[in-house]
Amino acid sequence: MTNNPVLSFLQQRNSSAKLTAPAPSAAQLNEIFKAALRAPDHGGLKPWSFITIEGDARVRLGELFVKAELSHGVQLDEDKIRKICSKPLRAPLIIAVAASVTESAKVPDIEQIISAGCAAQNILLAVEALGYAAIWRTGDVAYDDFVQDGLGLEQHQMLLGFLYIGTRDMPEKPLPERDVNTFVRSW
Ligand SMILES: Cc1cc2nc3c(=O)[nH]c(=O)nc-3n(C[C@H](O)[C@H](O)[C@H](O)COP(=O)(O)O)c2cc1C
């Protein structure tokens, strides 16, 4: 146990699979994105791109997911279509996070993708710091070119996932006790 409040916050970060309104306000969202923009960034490439999806845009995202499945020839009955359409409605706000990868002799693609992943993590932390909750979700749709096109991403951009954001709508969950030594060794 630590007495340091920031460390304690980090050690207890966790996701909420169930979310409801309200989501962070526009002003809070601006602060959250400022945290995202402090992700470590080799070469100062700023390889980050964020798309906010709220309100009716969530309905359009569900429809995009369905169209993506249909474009691959997947047969969907009405029940399945309803299920897919309801997915983005699980939170009042979604932030799609993409890595904008530029060709660089010094900074390999993987480093730019990791940087965007760090930005996503900073968003999760900032959201939680403001008293809200979130969960990072992907699924096949996140890696689907049809979905990436539909979101307006360009060829050099890679979608890393959807951050579902809102207010926790489930009890706090017990966090697993993890033994640091299982994952750490000195060399
Ligand atoms: C890149 C990435 C993709 C993920 N995709 C999903 C997903 O599609 N569905 C899901 O339930 N959890 C997904 N997760 C895991 C959750 O975000 C979350 O971390 C997990 O439920 C464990 O909860 P915790 O964060 O409270 O430890 C993903 C996590 C990462 C880092």
* CATH topology grouping: NADH Oxidase
| Biggest sheet descriptor | 5 strands, antiparallel
Write out the CATH superfamily name: NADH Oxidase
Q: Would you report the number of β strands?
A: 5
* N-to-C span: 26 Å
How many domain units?
1
Which radius of gyration do the C-alpha atoms yield?
18 Å
- Examine the secondary-structure arrangement and name the CATH architecture: 3-Layer(aba) Sandwich
Number of H- or I-type helical stretches: 6
Low-confidence stretches: none
Mean pLDDT across every amino acid position: 98
What form results from the Cα inertia axes? globular
CATH class: Alpha Beta
Structural class: alpha+beta
Give the DSSP E fraction (strand runs of 2 or more residues): 15-25%
The percentage helix is 25-40%
Q: Which ions, cofactors or small ligands are bound in this entry?
A: flavin mononucleotide
Could you describe the 3D structure shown?
The structure is a single chain. With 187 residues, the protein is of the alpha+beta class. It has a single domain (18-169), classed as NADH Oxidase. The chain is 37% helix and 18% strand. It has helices spanning 5-11, 26-36, 56-71, 78-86, 109-129, 145-150; strands spanning 19-20, 48-54, 93-100, 133-137, 157-168. Strands 1, 2, 3, 4 and 5 form a five-stranded antiparallel sheet that branches. α2 (26-36) runs antiparallel to α5. The protein starts with a helix and ends in a 19-residue tail after the last strand. The mean pLDDT is 98. Flavin mononucleotide binds at residues 14-15, 135-139, 161.
